[in-house]
TrEMBL record:
Portion held of the full protein: 340 to 618 of 618
The name this protein goes by in its record: PAS domain S-box-containing protein/diguanylate cyclase (GGDEF)-like protein
Species per Swiss-Prot/TrEMBL record: Bradyrhizobium daqingense
Signal peptide span: none
Annotated ranges, domain EAL: 24-273
Highest taxon listed in the record's lineage: Bacteria
Length: 279
């Protein structure tokens, strides 16, 4: 009897896995069309000085799926990375973000996330160069965000490409800092322009004393290396007060503003009414 139950359970797991596989295949099929069907959107989230002044925006990918509704990046970027679609998608969001930023009256910065896959395949340097030229955005206004995943694998190749990107005049930020295995050692291999302290440390500030110590340690290390720090996921005044006390320079999070269509932030970027109407 136990045997039968056991077998039944195995079969149940199998069918669940089949379903997951089918679902992934369906999603991938849809994702291939998402670009041409105009289902991908760029959301923008403000980045501010710790005192409150907005200094730029991070571009965040959104997929408005015809039947599933809004799909978040964590649900489809890994899929896009597995089959290389991220190359096209990454180039698309880079172009959209630069074009958008170039239209602002205020010369705020725009930050775009890059996938490790974009460092391994395609012509990242060429495509960034082309997009800057095409959109007329000053390179100094573009920041690209990478995670340590970029430096895993072909370490020297990735470093070399990072150096060439920096030579274009753009800035390189280390995203999700503190969550990886060897974040610290990467700081000595490349002159990052900014460190983004991962959201998890900020959201645990009140609940776990260790988080506060980690944030403090990252800030003092960054200060020693003269690298500015932005705290991710700042949601409360208490978190902001802590960061102010610890001399963290910048913040990003719901306290400043949620990711949204740029239309919501037109007053900040200083776009004329004329353009606002024609959008
Ligand atoms: P990330 O680059 O670390 O982006 C920050 C994430 O934190 C975003 O999630 C943002 O919506 C969320 N967030 C910001 N402030 C708060 C806050 O105060 N509270 C909370 N709870 N969350 C906050 P999102 O948009 O879902 O993106 C998730 C991740 O997907 C990003 O993490 C990034 O790694 C990746 N991603 C997004 N867009 C792109 C893209 O265009 N290309 C690539 N390669 N990856 C992207
Ligand atoms: Mg990011
Ligand atoms: Mg992050
Ligand atoms: Mg992240």
């Amino acid at each position: 009897r136990a045997k039968r139950e056991g077998r039944g359970r195995v079969r149940f797991f199998e069918s669940e896995m089949d379903q997951e596989l089918r679902d992934r295949r369906l999603l991938l099929h849809d994702l291939r069309r998402a670009l041409e069907q105009n289902e991908l959107l760029v959301y923008f989230q403000p980045q501010a000085r710790i005192e409150g002044e907005v200094i730029g925006f991070e571009a965040l990918l959104r997929w408005n799926h015809p039947t599933r509704g809004f799909v978040l990046p964590d649900q489809f970027i890994p899929l896009a990375e597995e089959n290389g679609l991220i190359i096209q998608i990454g180039e698309w969001i880079l172009r959209e973000a630069c074009r958008e930023a170039a239209s602002w009256q205020r010369p705020l910065q725009v930050a775009v996330n890059l996938s490790p896959v974009q460092f391994q395949a395609g012509d990242l340097e060429g495509s960034i160069q082309r997009i800057l030229l095409e959109t007329g955005l000053a390179p100094t206004r573009l920041e690209v965000e990478i995670t340590e995943g970029v430096l895993i694998g072909d370490f020297n190749g990735a470093l070399d490409l990072l150096r060439r990107l920096k030579a274009l005049g753009i800035r390189i930020a280390m995203d999700d800092f503190g969550t990886g295995y060897s974040s610290l050692s990467y700081l000595q291999s490349f002159p990052f322009d900014k460190i983004k302290i991962d959201r998890s440390f900020i959201s645990n500030l009140e609940a776990t004393p260790q988080s506060g110590e980690i944030v403090r340690a990252v800030l003092s290390l960054a200060r020693a290396l003269s690298i500015p720090v932005i705290a991710e996921g700042v949601e409360t005044e208490a978190q902001r007060a802590f960061l102010t006390r610890e001399a963290c320079e910048e913040m990003q999070g719901h306290l400043v503003g949620r990711p949204d269509l740029i239309e919501r932030y037109l007053d900040l970027v200083g776009v004329t009414v004329e353009r606002g109407l024609s959008v």
